[in-house]
Design brief:
A hairpin with a 4-residue loop joins strand 2 and strand 3. The protein is mainly β. Strands 3-2-5-6 form a four-stranded antiparallel beta sheet, with no helix packed on it. Strands 4-1-7 form a three-stranded mixed beta sheet, with no helix packed on it. It is 0% helix and 53% strand.
Length: 97
């Protein structure tokens, strides 16, 4: 029989907001996608001016992709989601001219 305990990690939490890179104002409607470096992804998740709050993510290194109509797609930042901890990211998107 197997006698070693199974250790479960707590979920990671992410708070993300989209912001206009020029005016620094929140973007009212958009979406984010969380992409793990392993290829697994979560989303797209709808995002409003207050942002999005995701409570059940796997810990690990991820890229956060933000998109909104009328804005250019920027290079996504890479962050480390930690078990049982909150991470926060603000994605600055440039308006299309």
């Amino acid at each position: 029989t197997y006698t070693d305990p199974i250790v479960l990690q707590r979920a990671a939490v992410l708070r993300a907001r989209l912001r206009n890179a020029e005016s620094q104002e929140p973007i009212a409607r958009g979406e984010i996608t969380v992409i793990y470096l392993t290829g697994r992804s979560r989303g797209p998740l709808p995002c409003n001016a207050a942002g999005v709050h995701v409570k059940t993510l796997w810990p690990g290194e991820v890229r956060i992709v933000g998109r909104a109509e009328g804005y250019l797609h920027e290079k996504p930042p890479t962050i480390e989601l930690q078990a049982g901890k909150d991470s926060e990211v603000v994605l600055d998107l440039t308006p299309v001219e």
